[in-house]
Write a structure and sequence with these properties.
- The structure is a homodimer of 124-residue chains.
- Chain A is 65% helix and 11% strand.
- Chain A is mostly helical and 124 residues long.
- A three-stranded antiparallel beta sheet of chain A has the order 1-3-2.
- The interface between A and B is large, with 55 and 55 residues.
- Chain A binds a DNA duplex (20 and 20 nucleotides) through helix 4.
- Chains A, B: This is Helix-turn-helix transcriptional regulator.
Chain lengths: 124, 124
DNA sequence: CTGTATCCCTATAGATACTG
DNA sequence: CAGTATCTATAGGGATACAG
């Protein structure tokens, strides 16, 4: 893991870029407790646009993390669900979530200190 | 964790955006086994530009994950090192890294299948 | 050695309108 | 209902030049 140009580090970096985008984690978390239809997801993630939800779901489907099931009725019905692979991702994400919740306060304080110090430097 | 608009989910999402950027994880991993000077980091992460390394380190410093120690000699010397907070992030990142290495093959196969299916659809 | 400053290009994401 | 298409705004990031 010492050489950042090695495949392992690249893999991690690529993965983090994917799930680190603005919507992927929210969608995965939402699908965590069961399958959802397209507009159900929209309602549960109010801030996501139709376009971004579509793109996010397509990427997740392409990566094999989410399955897409079309029921050709009228009106059409599409259900999204985590695959086994997608579910297996929940555990490591949860680890990160735990770290985040435990340390968010420390990070905010560090940011406040840093910004205060920067302001002071400007004033001087 | 059900409501994606709740603070916890936002926190995770924000955190992932931060460490999910192009360089942060590489820098954190590189600093994982000890402090480095600016140009040492550049050499160990050949693909990073001076600008992006500076920005990445500033953000990490601001978040309290990395400490910056200036030695006012000639030439100047600046050492970067993980703080306790930064080190504590290594464990959850490692969990994700493990998942990534274990499943990278499955993801690639899923992508190949998806792309093949898409091509087929175009051909038809 | 360790950065800043500037220019510029591209990728990402939001808004809106339209379609099967 | 579940998308696609298009336009636009912004942010990320590379290259280069310069500075303490």
């Amino acid at each position: 893991m010492k050489d950042p140009s090695n495949p392992v580090c690249r893999t991690i970096s690529t993965l983090l870029s994917r799930i680190g985008d603005k919507w992927t984690v929210l969608v995965v978390q939402t699908l965590g407790d069961g399958s959802r239809r397209f507009n159900e997801l929209r309602r549960e993630i109010p801030s996501v646009s139709q376009r971004m939800l579509t793109l996010t779901l397509r990427n997740l489907e392409r990566d094999g993390l989410v399955s897409r099931t079309v029921t050709p009725s009228i009106p059409p019905r599409v259900d999204y669900e985590l695959t086994a692979l997608g579910k297996s991702l929940q555990k490591p994400i949860c680890g990160l979530a735990t770290w985040a919740t435990e340390n968010v306060e420390a990070i905010h304080q560090a940011q406040a200190r840093f910004d205060a110090a920067a302001d002071e430097a400007v004033a001087a």
